[in-house]
């Protein structure tokens, strides 16, 4: 096992926790909260979960993803120019762009929730979730180098 294996593992584990967390909230927690809790208690629980997930995102997920992602790209010799090349470069560029879009959608979800705009909050939550799954798909499509 090399140092780069550990870096890649941290990158993948962090992404798995992020996407897995989104899926767990969406597919397990939300349906149960809607069925078992009254409107006021449901709002309290979901706001608390959202705050905790947001803190995790800012304190753990983003730093790990950015740090390990930059390190892995450097290790593989990725340059700005190589992101335009067919294969690995273009797939990585698409993954990076989608990741940025997901982070914007997640931030807008947090803002819309705080601003009491539930329609926009839900749309941004779904957008972030679908985009996150797309990032994972693009990551698995990266050719081995």
> How many β-strand stretches?
0
End-to-end gap? 17 Å
Largest sheet data: none
Unreliable sequence segments: none
Structural class: mainly alpha
Q: Can you tell me the overall shape?
A: elongated
Q: How many individual helices?
A: 4
State which percent range the strand residues make up: under 5%
**Overall structural domain count:** 1
Keywords: Membrane, Transmembrane, Transmembrane helix
Protein name: Putative membrane protein
Transmembrane segments: 12-32, 53-75, 87-108, 120-142
Describe the 3D structure.
The chain is mainly alpha-helical. It has one domain. Helix content is 84%, strand content 0%. The two termini are 17 Å apart. The model has no long low-confidence stretch (mean pLDDT 95). This is Putative membrane protein.
Task: Summarize this structure briefly.
The chain is elongated, with a radius of gyration of 17 Å. It has one domain. It is built from 4 helices and no strands.
């Amino acid at each position: 096992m090399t140092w780069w294996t550990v870096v890649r593992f941290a990158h993948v584990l962090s992404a798995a926790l992020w996407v897995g967390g989104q899926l767990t909230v969406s597919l397990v927690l939300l349906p149960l909260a809607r069925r078992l809790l009254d409107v006021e208690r449901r709002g309290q629980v979901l706001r608390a979960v959202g705050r905790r997930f947001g803190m995790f995102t800012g304190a753990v997920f983003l730093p790990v993803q950015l740090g390990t992602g930059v390190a892995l790209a450097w290790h593989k010799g990725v340059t700005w120019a190589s992101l335009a090349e067919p294969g690995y470069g273009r797939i990585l560029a698409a993954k990076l762009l989608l990741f940025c879009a997901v982070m914007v959608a997640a931030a807008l979800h947090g803002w819309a929730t705080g601003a009491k705009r539930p329609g926009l909050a839900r749309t941004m939550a779904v957008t972030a979730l679908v985009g996150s799954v797309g990032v994972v798909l693009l990551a698995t499509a990266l050719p081995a180098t």
